[in-house]
Write a structure and sequence with these properties.
Number of helices: 6
Low-confidence stretches: none
Mean pLDDT: 91
Helix content: 55-70%
Largest sheet: none
Strand content: under 5%
Length: 138
């Protein structure tokens, strides 16, 4: 019972938690967001939102880059903290489009924001390509 209320964790628990966060949030974004936009690019490119006057095609391309390619990087644990930044920006834009509504129809968006912020703060953990590359330069 005492273990249920402890606030500490072992390095294994920490690294396993970061791995689960990365795989979970990366894998949830890919199929219905990033990949779906990629395969329907030609249909969406003219009707997608024009973010900051960049044009709808370029805005869609940036969104696909974040939702698909940055999610893959997060799953792999490669350039993890850097890859979360475009995803955080994308999620903030989506929240802005939906009038910052954090409860209701789009409540998954703030959950993604919380997950990506946690990944940004925690880093990739030991079970990542970042850790493997970093260990070669120590």
């Amino acid at each position: 019972m005492k273990r249920l209320f402890t606030t500490g964790n072992s390095p294994f628990q920490f690294n396993l938690a970061t791995l689960l966060l990365r795989i979970g949030f990366g894998a949830l974004m890919i199929p219905s967001h990033g990949y779906a936009k990629l395969i329907h690019f030609s249909e969406k490119k003219d009707t997608f939102m024009n973010f900051m006057g960049l044009g709808s095609t370029f805005s869609l391309s940036l969104t696909i880059f974040a939702e698909l390619f940055c999610s893959i990087l997060i799953i792999l644990g490669l350039f993890t903290r850097l890859a979360t930044i475009p995803l955080i920006i994308t999620v903030l834009v989506i929240l802005g489009i939906h009038d910052w509504e954090i409860f209701g129809e789009h409540e998954l968006v703030p959950a993604f924001l919380a997950g990506y912020l946690a990944i940004l703060l925690l880093g990739p953990g030991k079970y990542s390509l970042d850790a493997l590359i970093g260990s070669k330069y120590k």
